[in-house]
Amino acid sequence: MSEVVFVRRLSPGTKSVLAVFARYGTIIGLLAMIAAFSLLSPRAFPTVYNFTNVLNQASLAMIIAGGLTLAVIVGELDLSIGFAASMHGVLVTGLIVSSGLPIPVAILLVIALGGLIGLINGVIVTKIKVNSVIGTLGVGTILTGLSFAYSAGVPITAGVPEAFLQVSLGRWLFGIPNNIVIMAAVLGGLWVLVERTPLGQEIQAVGGNHAAARLAGIDVDRIKILGFVGSGMCAALTGILLASRLGSGTTSAADPYLLTAFAAVFLGSATLRDGEFHVFGTFIGALIIAFGFNGLSIFGAPTYSQYIFQGAILIIAVGLSSLGRILSQR
């Protein structure tokens, strides 16, 4: 309440400027960053090759962040996604190399398992009433243990077929990297689901107000569980594509995607809408992080600067999201 009162004390002109910044600040920041990097490195940064490389490198983070967006829209947090993606990468590689399963079968089984883990997360949160932070963190820790048990902590590298590597590294459609095509299909599908379907309206209603959604006859628990299922399936797909890109199944390979996904989602909530989480915003947030990392790399910044940048981006993202919500209550 005090925050809202503070905003009301500002002059109309100041509130208008803040409102524009809260709604368009991320897009303005993205364009300004691209322009600055282009001026500072005109030969290396503003090229089709570099922009394609940025999208390709960011595609997996965008997929896992897109799934997380579903969980966050319905008012929950999924902290298991990074650990789950790592386990799925180990599992899909093991199923192909050790169990001899055909690549499509192994991929489908692992994606289905990702949905099952999301279902378990959803049941723990909605039926057992465990806080989503605690519940999903606990599930993620269990998955890390299972991953180590399955692989004995040793990366699965020997015998990975070339056909599996090409799932991530190939260019099957008009010379576009497969990861970019898959990312576009996933995020496009999620956007249509949330923005253009009756189920999406229910998802947004639950995220907007749980009590009102229940009074409107919406099964809130079912919608929340579906959000976790979507998050789990996207984490599984990310783990599969990462294992294909690396040519190995490694127990902690995807763990860093957790922070990246949350930064992208919260940056997205400050894009075009007043503190609301949405798929297109997540895409913009992931682009900001990707171009930031790319620029730092081109200018030879030390590795630790990427962690500083990502942590700062997360803080700024939450701040912009909070500002948007406050201004929306004017």
TrEMBL record:
Bilayer disposition of the protein: Multi-pass membrane protein
Residue intervals passing through the bilayer: 21-42, 54-74, 81-99, 105-126, 133-152, 172-194, 225-244, 256-272, 279-301, 307-327
Keyword presence, Transferase: no
InterPro entries: ABC_transp_permease
Protein keywords: Cell membrane, Membrane, Transmembrane, Transmembrane helix
Domain of life: Bacteria
Principal subcellular localization: membrane
Protein's cellular compartments: Cell membrane
CDD domains: TM_PBP1_transp_AraH_like (cd06579)
Name of this protein: ABC transporter permease
Species for this entry: Shinella pollutisoli
